[in-house]
Amino acid sequence: MATAVKQKSDVILQYLRPHKKMPSVWCAGCGNGIIMSAIIRAVDKLGYSKDEVVMVSGIGCSSRMPIYLDFNALHTTHGRALGFATGVKFARPDLKVIVITGDGDALAIGGNHFIHACRRNIDITTILINNAIYGMTGGQGSPATPSGAFSTTTPYGNVEKHFEPCELARAAGATYVGRTTVYHATQMEKMIAGGLAHSGFAFIEAISNCQTYFGRLNRKGDAVAMIKSFKENAVMLGKAKKMSEEELEGKIVIGTLYRTEKTEFCDEYQRVIDSLQGGK
Amino acid sequence: MAQKKRVLMLGNLACVHGAIYAGMRFYAGYPITPSTEIAEGCARELPRIGGRFIQMEDEIGSIAAVVGASIAGLKAMTATSGPGYSLMVENIGYAYMTETPCVIVNVQRGGPSTGLPTKVSQSDTMQARWGPHGDFTAITVAPSTISDTVSETIRAFNLAERFRTPVTVLLDEVMGHMREIITLPEPGEIEVLERVRPTCPPEEFVPFERTPNLVTPMPRYGDGYRYIVTGLTHDQMGFTTNKPEEITPKLDKLRNKIENYKEEIIKLRVEMMEDAEIAFVSYGSVSRTAFQAIDIARKAGVKVGGVQLYTIWPFPDKELAELCNRCNKVIVAELNMGQIVNEVRRVLPPDVSIHSLRRYDGEILTPMQLLEKLEEVL
Ligand SMILES: Cc1ncc(C[n+]2csc(CCOP(=O)(O)OP(=O)(O)O)c2C)c(N)n1
Ligand code: SF4
Known about the structure:
The complex is a heterodimer. Chain A has helices at about 1-15, 30-45, 65-70, 80-90, 105-110, 110-120, 165-170, 185-195, 210-215, 225-235, 235-240, 245-250, 265-280; strands spanning about 55, 70-75, 95-100, 125-130, 175-180, 200-205, 235, 250-260. Chain A is an alpha/beta fold. Chain A has one domain (about 30-275): Thiamin diphosphate (ThDP)-binding fold, Pyr/PP domains (Rossmann fold, 3-Layer(aba) Sandwich), CATH 3.40.50. Chain A starts with a helix and ends with a helix. Chain B has helices spanning about 10-20, 35-45, 60-70, 80-100, 125-130, 145-165, 175, 245-260, 260-265, 285-300, 315-325, 340-345, 365-375; strands at about 5-10, 25-30, 50-55, 75-80, 100-110, 140, 165-170, 180-185, 230, 270, 280, 305-310, 310-315, 330-335, 355-360. In chain B, the strands form 3 sheets. In chain B, strands 3-2-4-5-7-6-13 form a 7-stranded mixed β-sheet, with helices on both faces. Chain B has a 5-stranded mixed β-sheet with strand order 10-12-11-14-15, sandwiched between helices. A two-stranded antiparallel sheet of chain B has the order 1-8.
């Protein structure tokens, strides 16, 4: 057991950026760290070299992740990660592109890029860290903040409705869609590996805890309490299918929700290039 | 020797031709009049040569994709007009901060807002300099013929690579939609610069090193030099920083890598300035009429000359002051409410009287209008 734990942390250390002065900007207990290690394990399992991985992010607590990892890092502007990532992937289809984005980053300011990246089915694995709030700017409401929930900009409870990111992704054309939580670290690792191995746009919603703002403002307790609540409220997809809408109220359905094969954007374009050049 | 290829070419397609000559292999854009033929030309031509074209969901995504593609290793360009340029500015600022070479073409129309989609204007001249927030130094070039449009687009790519910076090409509705017969440059006829790449082992690589000329060699993604690209202020290693002793040198690098090499960037057309007592200063499509007016006035015995700014930014402070040192009057002609005239005022001695000839009704300045202005100030 002890050696297994040691081996695990050795793997993590291998992928942390050398010379980077830790600690990170993240609060102790923030779910971002759990997600980061799941990504590392997934990449390690797939045997990708660090040189071929590009991690692109926008702006937010979650989007700081590429700074800490020893991949090619592209920390961009708020909401625009998928625009930059599209440029990287289309210019260099041989690279493995991972996008890290927050619920504000992807669903508010970056909503347009998000739906169009899904629509193109470009081979990018996007991990949306959904903590239901704006962490970096201090706890304002996001498009994922549930109705009635408190944030610094919904001081009387949120009067808006929230987005369901996975439904949005599927409707927009993503070909691999999954949801998991920071409690389900092993499932998360497998889901990310599945997304990376999938040719096309893979979207993973990682439900995470921001105890500092969402937790505090909504009396959800500390990091441990929040992560425990994810465990208690999570329902595996298979089981959820047999449950009624009322029974599913307040639950988090986890698992690979949707998967299909469709032609990938860069491949399709390459076919155009080949046909033009072959026709000469 | 074989006859050189002469073709009738649209301004916007001359820009595409120049870009491909310069090695552009990636274009991302969003349609907008009067720039659209650039996107359409790239959509047609790029896949034929193994390049890539993508129509993005908006101009914010377009410039984002261009910057991403450039960092990944391809020469990349986007083209737009005022409303699109306004949407791009945050990510153009990102390109300044991350020192990413790319070319942005603004085929100007009248503004503000949606303005005059099909009418000529030069009212984005200051925006090309000051569009994004923050301090940085910008490079902007402006051709005035279709043949120039090919060579200035090539020059824009060369400057972008040489200085690791975004470069703006300012066209306008007239330049974009005019056709002229031009001679296309043969391969090898015009120099094309390639990005300087690091040669040191990756462990020794300092991604934003303050090298003697302040331009750091730039790797492609995937080549083994794993580094951080961030729009946050960063130190030489690319790590984000709040340290005053790191912030100043980073911003100085952005400025001085360009300001210290202005003579490589400044390009002017100078006609009949040796004995000129009065000078026309112009740029872009207005230069076409300015030199016509100068010809006519010279024939009538007026000692008038002209300076055309091929490089608008950085502004040719020293060069213009030297060229105009014998003039007592200068007329700055432009299709806006008076933008470059203030730069001219800034750099010329106070005893030179400076006059602004402006037009901002969507029409061009005619030689007649320039001559009338000349008569008025004589
Ligand atoms: C154009 C722009 N608008 C606003 C901001 C300020 N801002 C920074 S992060 C952020 C929200 C981040 O929330 P989210 O994407 O949910 O990520 P989290 O911090 O929760 O991980 C905002 C509004 C910005 N950096 N840029
Ligand atoms: S503010 Fe919230 S999201 Fe940001 S690091 Fe802290 S716990 Fe995580």
